[in-house]
């Protein structure tokens, strides 16, 4: 049987090799590798048994057709069934945080979901999350994530230290935007224009904003640190601007109410050159020549020096 896609199981083993073993189509060396893995992985043993039972059932359906067509039909059915057989496990729980309820999900690869839960929304995760993952109730692993997030939101910690699973990211473009955003450090803000320039697409400001709007792991990937060029706090996690203000305030970034809405008073922040690692007050004469992609607004002189700015 020819498998055109490669899918990794939660344990890291290749599902195609397990399916081939169930069908008796593995070469001797690969078969030895599969059996060695099975000796240490109970979940794959159970999957192998499922695949073998399914193979037997499909074979019994096709045996009445003496032509090759029956076997081909059975194998196509097997391919279709096995393609959707295994979804990665997602441990999920909801934390009643100081900024509202937050749904947190973790796979064997890392944190895949951080979602602000609105009161009018259903308690269960979205259909997309349930399509991608086999959702299970969280436990100690989620409790540990919550502890770190609680420290962060109370100002006791700056680095969550979470590994990210990018399974819910929508495109390679979004991944690129989120990688650039993940490089924006605690206590600083940059602009959407700046992120667009960093990824080499200076005209894609709107697309950058959309990619950040659907960030599946906000806070860990700090889209709250990205603002409008005029300092305005534009959309956050589906327009939760109040939460964006609360998180920035924890990080020492001032936010004020203006006639146009919440905004960062840029004149009260230091300006950093991200590439050369030096900083100055907002009145620097050289600011007019600074590209948006190289500019960071920093909460304080102390924070700038902590990050190595001079």
Structural class: alpha+beta
Q: Please mark out the parts with pLDDT under 50 across 5 or more consecutive residues, or reply none.
A: 1-5
Count of strand segments: 11
Strand order of the largest sheet: 6-5-11-9-10
What is the CA–CA distance across the termini? 62 Å
Question: What's the rounded overall pLDDT mean?
Answer: 87
CATH superfamily heading of the largest domain? Winged helix-like DNA-binding domain superfamily/Winged helix DNA-binding domain
Report strand %: 15-25%
Largest β-sheet summary: 5 strands, mixed
Radius of gyration: 25 Å
Write a short abstract of this structure.
The protein has 310 residues and is of the alpha+beta class.
Layout of secondary structure:
Layout: H1 15-23, H2 28-38, H3 42-62, H4 68-83, E1 89-97, E2 100-106, E3 111-116, H5 127-132, E4 134-137, H6 140-153, H7 172-182, E5 188-191, H8 192-198, H9 205-213, E6 226-227, H10 241-250, E7 256-258, E8 261-263, E9 270-273, E10 278-280, E11 295-298, H11 301-306
Parallel strand pairs: 1-4, 5-6
Antiparallel strand pairs: 1-2, 2-3, 5-11, 7-8, 9-10, 9-11
């Amino acid at each position: 049987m020819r498998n055109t896609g490669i899918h990794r199981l939660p344990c890291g083993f290749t599902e195609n090799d397990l399916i081939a073993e169930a069908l008796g189509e593995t070469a001797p060396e690969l078969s030895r590798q599969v059996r060695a893995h099975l000796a240490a992985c109970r979940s794959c043993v159970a999957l192998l048994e499922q695949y073998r039972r399914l193979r037997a059932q499909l074979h019994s359906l096709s045996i009445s057709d003496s032509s090759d067509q029956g076997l081909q039909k059975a194998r196509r059915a097997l391919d279709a069934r096995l393609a959707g057989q295994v979804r990665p496990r997602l441990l999920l729980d909801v934390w009643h945080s100081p900024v509202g309820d937050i749904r947190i999900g973790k796979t064997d690869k890392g944190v895949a979901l951080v979602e602000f839960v609105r009161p009018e929304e259903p308690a269960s995760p979205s259909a997309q999350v349930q399509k991608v993952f086999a959702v299970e109730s969280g436990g100690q692993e989620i409790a540990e994530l919550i502890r770190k997030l609680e420290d962060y939101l109370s100002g006791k910690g700056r680095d969550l230290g979470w590994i990210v699973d990018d399974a819910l990211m929508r495109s390679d473009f979004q991944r690129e935007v989120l990688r650039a955003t993940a490089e924006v450090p605690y206590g600083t803000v940059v602009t959407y224009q700046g992120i667009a320039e960093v990824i080499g697409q200076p005209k894609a400001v709107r697309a950058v904003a959309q990619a950040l709007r659907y960030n599946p792991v906000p806070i860990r990937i700090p889209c709250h640190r990205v603002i409008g060029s005029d300092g305005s706090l534009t959309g956050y996690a589906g327009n939760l601007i109040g939460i964006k203000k609360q998180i920035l305030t924890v990080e020492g970034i001032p936010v004020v109410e203006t006639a146009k809405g919440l905004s960062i008073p840029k004149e009260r922040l230091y300006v950093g050159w991200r590439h050369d690692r030096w900083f100055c007050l907002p009145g620097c004469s050289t600011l007019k020549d600074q590209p948006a992609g190289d500019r960071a607004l920093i909460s304080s002189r102390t924070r700038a020096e902590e990050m190595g700015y001079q």
